[in-house]
Amino acid sequence: MEKEPPVKKTSAPSVSQINAEFVTQLANKYWAPHVKNKLPFDAKVMEDIYQSEILKSKFAIRKIMLLEFSQYLENYLWVNYTPEVSNNAYLMSICCIVNEKFRENVPAWEVFKKKPQHFPYFFKCVMEMSLAGAKSNLSLKEQTILLLFLDHCFNSLEVDLIREQVQQLISLPMWICLLPARLQHELKKVPKLQKFWNLIKKNYEKMDKKDSEQADRERTFLSLLIKKFLVVLSSILPSGDVSMEKVHYCERFLELMIDLEALLPTRRWFNTVLDDSHFVVYCHLSGLPLREKEGHLFCQLLDMLKFYTGFEINDQTGNALTENEMTTLHYDRITSLQRAAFAHFPELQDFALSNVAAVDTRESLIKHFGLLSPNTLHKVGSYLCLLPELGDQEDTTYDKEFLLELLVSRHERRISQIEQLNQMPLYPTEKIIWDENIVPTEYYSGEGCLALPKLNLQFLTLHDYLLRNFNLFRLESTYEIRQDIEDVVSRMKPWQSEYGGVVFGGWARMAQTILSFSIVEVAKPNIGENWPARVRADVTINLNVRDQIKSEWEGLRKHDVCFLITVRPTLPYGTRFDRRQPFLEQMGLVYVRGCEVQGMLDDKGRVIEEGPEPKPKLRGDTRTFRVWLDPNQYQQDMTNTIQNGTEDPYETFNIIMRRKPKENNFKAVLETIRNLMNTECVVPDWLHDIILGYGDPGSAHYSKMPNQISTLDFNDSFLSIDHLKASFPGYKVKVTEENPSLQIPPFRIKFPLKNVKGKKRNADEEDGESREGDNTLVVEPHVIPNRGPYPYNQPKRNTIEFTPTQIEAIRAGMQPGLTMVVGPPGTGKTDVAVQIISNLYHNFPEQRTLIVTHSNQALNQLFEKIMALDIDERHLLRLGHGEEELETEKDFSRYGRVNYVLARRLELLREVARLQESLDVPGDVSYTCETAGHFYLYQVMSRWEEYMSKVKPKHGRNVQVEDAAAQFPFHKYFSNAPQPVFKGRTYEEDIDIAEGCFRHIKKIFTQLEEFRAFELLRSGLDRSKYLLVKEAKIIAMTCTHAALKRHDLVELGFKYDNILMEEAAQILEIETFIPLLLQNPEDGFSRLKRWIMIGDHHQLPPVIKNMAFQKYSNMEQSLFTRCVRLGVPTVDLDAQGRARASLCNLYNWRYKRLGNLPHVQLQPEFRAPNPGLTFDFQLINVEDFNGVGESEPNPYFYQNLAEAEYAVALFMYMRLLGYPAEKISILTTYNGQKHLIRDVINQRCASNPYFGHPSKVTTVDRFQGQQNDYIILSLVRTKAVGHLRDVRRLVVAMSRARLGLYIFARVSLFQNCFELTPVFNQLTARPLQLHIRPHEYYTLDLSEKRPEHPDQVVNNMPEMANLVYTMYMNLIQNAQNRQLLPPPSQEQAAADAESEQSQLEQMAEEPSTEQAPQDTPMEQQEENQEERPRMPEHPGRDSDSEDSGAEEDA
Fold it and tell me: CA torsion angle for 1436, 1437, 1443, 1444 (degrees, to 10)?
């Protein structure tokens, strides 16, 4: 029987199809949201839809998509669901739509939460149907849909409604299904269980008949479901025809079992039931795994299930089992079997007396047990409580193969997970790269199930957590590698030559043909390993290419990853390649192996080392690279060659491929995860359970931490005492200083401590006082000691007036524990982060803080703000390659800091020389830090102490004011400070000034003492390491850099106490986790005290390129989002200061309480209208242009020419009114459209100074975290909503603009979408044609009053193009009349307005025909070519813009 053809992309229904569909006509009568007078509910309609639309079409995704999209579940099915109308069709319809919601990744349970009363009955019916199956006339396809629905329920345990129903199915009473002997055996293991079991029995006996029947149904549900599955499985024969519906049912069932086993709450009791049903053994022996084609996915799923059933965890306690505990368990099993054999089965004497290692392999177990009769095997099984007792005269009903497999699989030695992992090659080979079940194509529709791990809310152990992430990260990078290989090899066009060899008809920038390849070293294995310690090879290529490409190849760095490829094409020279056909057969690709570059060889065959020295110049074009191969892979290949006589792949390579460095760090990250799994990875105790998803989600909040700090110095967080009082609503503020003039920041605040364990109140405290103290803050203003007389000695101050929630976030960040800050767009996330960093720096000067962000750009923003605060820059360090982009003249990279320290040292020594001179001390004391130290001790300190003894008042003696200045020993040194240094007003003030001056001098010497190490360390590398480990207090890096360099950082002994993560919702789970472990534990404990995550889970998640990993495995879930889903307490910032209030309304519905800061309502720029445009935001409907809406030249490469032209025309119009180009960005939701808009801009505007380029043309996803004043947005799609259904993308799109947002879209498509209604209701309330006022001009002084002019309505894109065209021609003619060369200044533009306006108004009244302005402008253009910039071709009629974006972005 042929397998079904692979699922190709499901084409989403277009608007016209939607309108023509039977479903839509029904929707318009019965449930569409926009219909006013709906017909009442009719069960027959629902029945008809199920029969004719769903069943008849064999559950076609398109039909179900239509129903789901039309809000069938929300407005028809669930609202009208009651036990009376419930029937099979009703239940199946609901399950179909819920599954579809999960497939589309949109929230599925919201509708049930709103009306929960009938859900228990509905769930009970679904359970009965899943068990009844064929009895209730359900096809296998329908039963598969029910399985999928149940799987979604088990994976949604965080939803209370679902958990209440599901919990009954997986709790301890389900052990009623175990064999009585097995039950007793299990209850004995954990003494407490026997008590619980007796209680359960008692309660059960008290139940009435109805309740007890219901309880039975729940307890036995999963056990009966397994029995039913085994019947289906046994009906599949190893050969002959097979129904694919059966296969799909079996696959989905295994998926359900894996998901139950991979979650601790479901696994706890179920694992024993699954084991008792011998599920894995039955599956292993069934006919399906023997079918190579149809059983392939089933086998992979079965391997995953085997892995989880034997997982290294104690099911009852949830504790991870160590390697030793697993070995002990294995030995216990074997020895108990040996004892049984010795006592009861004399024929197993040899087995019973052997040592464990001799009998625990599969071969020896089969040898010993294979000779026994089935009855004896059954008896052994029943003795081990695996099978029911066998009577004396009875024969067993099980066949021998089953009994043997049952005993062998239970007792064979298992390879530990860590060993398996360490033996695994890290580079993918051709077998994995093109296996569709493991790495699905981009066409994954979300229908089938896959052999992939899923990232859910909870994980079994840290090992499980790392392993799932490891596998997914590996496969996601494999997918990207596959795309690269397919791209590169098809560009090289390998064909078969006439003589049977390979000839390449093309070329690729990222690949070269290999001239020679030879293995040069295979090192001996390390002790205890059976693979070589390293394998090195030399690859020679000929770089007869352009200089730029040659230098790229020569610039390959150490540790860059390349791929070695063997192709043996069978197609003759000149054959065209067909993208739709399988890639491997066409190209004849045979092998792919990864390698890591060690370096290029010089003339003498030595590796050229990287370093500051210039590289030697090599003659000729031949270059040889020394590379490291993967030793595990090499070992496997060689074993295969020797044992099976296959060819040696390493003698066949003919292409070497490199990849872009930014996308090529997968091997380093995988190695890091593998190293983490091999070390005792110590996560702080207070975080452990939260990361795994168990326990109290609020347990790491500062209010529950035992080491809460009561008094904190808020430094410059508050601007005044009133700001402080306003920041703590609900608290009484008690200030220690009575005098209002002295109540000035900085403030120390003492907080009342709550919930702190182990702190008893003093007995003499009165109750009333303690109650009152619970919400009283004691505030103590303190004065920062004078730092010296120079202006730069004054500390830099924060100037932001933080809101109460921002202050709460800062307070939480300063306390120990986990702080999560949700920062909606424009709420000052970065300012809060920087203030937390500054406050930690001042409160805990001995602690070190690590800053991690997702992008270099975010790090740069943080750094620029940190520098504006009072933080000494010698304590700042930035790791990674992004420091080049810092927009400051200071270099914060390692070597930049080393240079800074060396320069600073010389500067300070010069100051020492000046001080020495001012004190008339002879000798050369400013030669080194050491001599300067002696000078300070013997010359400076002595003078200061003498001065202090003179001016400090002694008992009974007054000191004159002028003494403080007269006796001061350092007058000459401070002669270059602002004079007079001493004010002479009061004694206290002058003494304070003198102490400030001395602090200034002392600081010079303390810094020199710190820099002394740099005199002893000579190499740049040592100095930079010293900086990282000792000197820097605030270290910043991206999460990728942390993953790449973990090994080096741990080896250096890097230490830190606090982590702050910005953009935390955009970082992959694993890349968030690795920074927690960049240091070695101290005495088995992590020294981490604080973890602050700042992000916004309502904006876009991490980018995952492969749809299957994104949807099926939920790989796009960040740790931040998971914590929010688990209920970890968050601080939600609630006031935005970026956008106009009207624009903020487009996205603030998504947040708890997002309001506006006062300046958004008050400042003129937010109050004034946008000149030339009637509205501050508008949705402009764009119909087809020349009959075309969206087009898709390549998969997912969507374009829409009409919208691209319209968006660019609006940009040109705004430029002609005088808007600055850098204040306008054009965004779109697809890459294809981005390229098309760039093409249109290059054609129309780029070379013309009147227009130029907008600030950015990019995708919404790329623009996250950035903003601009005016945003023009193109939504592209006209057939289906596409990925804008993800509300997070919508939120990002709506929140990028400060003053104006103009959206081009097909309104009829987007306004029907349920998820988007909160936004589109606001957008469609305004006119859907662009309203403009071409007589207004952009000026810098914005007025709120508008001149009285009627709006002009633009009906479509060609009309807008004509208008821009005419405006431009008028502008040019005016410029020529005045002999002015463009571009005009703002004032002149305004002066031209009068003359232009009459022409514009005339133009607006003329009917706009597309051909109108064709002739004259073109002639004029040729005449005036010299004098003015070229006018862009007319957008309405341009011949080649149709395909301008259609070429693939190569």
Answer: -70
